[in-house]
Hints:
By secondary structure, this protein is of the alpha+beta class.
Amino acid sequence: MPTDDPLHSQDPLGEALHFLRVTGSFYCRSELTAPWGLTMPTWPDCLWFHIVTAGRCRLDVDGAEPRMLQPGDLALVPHGQGHVLGSGADVITPDVMGLEHEFQNRYAILRHGGGGAATTLVCGAVRLDHPAAHLILPLLPMVIHVEPSGSPQAEWMQSTLRLVAAEAAEMRPGGEAVITRLSDILVIQALRTWIQTDPAAQRGWLGALRDRQIGRAITLIHRDPARAWTVASLANELAMSRSAFAARFTELVDEPAMRYVTRWRMQTARTLLAEDGVTVAEIASRLGYQSEAAFSRAFKRITGVPPGTVARARAG
């Protein structure tokens, strides 16, 4: 199948990352003085991030080693898990949502602590809305900690972090808008850094995207999920034999090609169900199903719930 973008066709991993979209749920600038502690709640389907712009803090996530965050550090808690931030190990940690905030739309300012050494954080909870996010997020570790280093990529991130720190310190008109947009960029960049540097990202689905042939097959599925794909038609696109393609796809992706096609369609459907005014029948048609009933059966088989349940939950 011809493609309109030869650059992306040669970089399936880059294409998957290109389409990740951040939707901010909550952003907060925290001015904290020791001793202080905060408990961040569990927010399913969200990714927490914390940027230290001044001072230092300790990050505790159950199941992971405690981290000491310094100025210029960025930490992600990718699975929405509840966790604790504090000036030390033995501090009182009230629920952050129970403290008094100064709210400006989705941006909040929190002042809390005992009057000692100061720490300033920019924190937030965001969602990644593209279907590729549903495949990337389960592969991520419990904590991603990005520290300053000498690489050009790290310097770019540090420059952005310094800009966030400057905006947080001055809070000029429009500062909250600048901080939220820069934070979204930093979240995506931190994910890219992990994917490019962590050995765990070289295996499974992310590793398969780097394979010249299987990566190309995944791109074709992502771009045209409604097409009546078969193992034979995908193999033909890659000039591979049917048996060789089927075996290599299953080996690298850890599931058969046609199950992956169905799962990608259902992840796409989950994203479409969040859009206002889009009906289940329209989604079924857009994803190549001949009837709403056939689509609904496939959706429930893969996700465990009917599509109408997801639509109602998103609306709520």
